[in-house]
Amino acid sequence: MNRFQLEKLYEVNGLKDYRLKTPEDLLKTHGIDYQEVDGYSGLDDLNKKLYEQFIVNYFNGQGLESRATMIPKGIYFVEDIDVLAKENPENDYYTVIGGRVVVIDRNGMRTVHRTWQDEDYAHLVEEFPEAITEGKPKQYLRFEYEHQGRKEWQHVISPTQWY
After folding, report:
1. DSSP E strand boundaries for 86-137
2. Residue 98, Cβ neighbours under 10 Å: how many?
3. Number of separate domains in the chain
4. Residue 148: how many CB atoms within 10 A of its CB?
5. Could you tell me the residue range of the domain that residue 19 belongs to?
6. In whole angstroms, what separates CA 7 from the centre of its chain?
């Protein structure tokens, strides 16, 4: 869809300033049902509300052409846990060598969403298993999407803050 066509869709739906007002505007202008995104049904009411406010702001923060290439793929409340190791058991500090992202649904059920390991430090797991530990878990709302053909995600802090 070209820019002119997208502008017309916004205008026909009363969005003369080309800014979404509600999450339902996503369906009218982009054909995206925000409630059908993977993980939405597992969110509690508070996180659903945060997502609904965030997604409008996130789309509005993009240019029209950029919005046309965004495809929401998932919204999850997660716990992110770093796997840490000491490169030398005598060190006072740890290095992040991997991690685990666990989805927590509205009922408290936990499912591993993804794991990762830095191959540069894989030898530490075998050489110094006693030096491996986990960092303090971080919980946040995770928005996953495709943008211009690339898989990306955002750590949602509030309706107007993310990274």
Report:
1. 95-104, 110-117, 132-134
2. 20
3. 1
4. 10
5. 3-73
6. 27
